[in-house]
């Protein structure tokens, strides 16, 4: 392992430790609980929502509590587009970081080359879309796309489309909490959404995977 790769490994390990400690001290559930009273103050609420989506990657929070919070305070009608755009913006932050870091080479460059080989098979937009539809956490997908040098347009389109089913269920769950009907459609639909999203991810990748396998020369 060369000096650059060792330095990247040490700095990445240190960053993971710091983020883990920060996440333990400041959980998304705690932040959401402290800000739900702002539902009657639209200006403050808008600032809190924007701020939460911007800082989320630095604490490695999942996007689900934020989408549920938006659904709780705004309802489904307004909450869904807001949460969907928030999911796109918050995923762009780790993507841009990885895109720049991958240019350094070393360990990040190796990760980028590995990811790029996968993207060359699936296609950029299709690969990101399939990853978003699968139950893989948001940040690993964003970092992977950045290291693999996926274009910003392909990343945005794949993320926007792939997050739709997840955001819809999460916002609906938050909105149902508002009316104390958590046992309603949003929760009952979650297993079906998981299965449907996984099936869609397989279908999205089926064509490229089949062409990749059939185009490979057979054994001599």
How would the blueprint of this fold be written?
Elements lengths: L2 H23 L2 H8 L6 H18 L4 H38 L4 H17 L1 H10 L4 H10 L4 H27 L6 H31 L5
Helix pairs in contact: 3-4, 4-7, 4-8, 5-6, 5-7, 6-8, 6-9, 8-9
Helices, by number, come to 9
Report the principal-axis shape. globular
Give, in order, the helices and strands. HHHHHHHHH
Low-confidence stretches: 180-186
Task: Write down how many β-strands occur, each being a DSSP E stretch of 2 or more residues.
Answer: 0
Largest sheet: none
Helicity, as a percent range? over 70%
**Classification by helices and strands:** mainly alpha
* Rg on CA atoms, Å: 19 Å
Mean pLDDT: 78
Strand content: under 5%
State the separation between the terminal residues, measured CA to CA: 36 Å
Tell me what the structure shows:
It is a single chain. The protein is an all-alpha fold. It is built from 9 helices and no strands. The protein is globular and about 60 Å long.
Which tags fit this structure?
mainly alpha, 220 residues, single chain, 0% strand, 9 helices
Structure described in brief:
By secondary structure, the chain is mainly α.
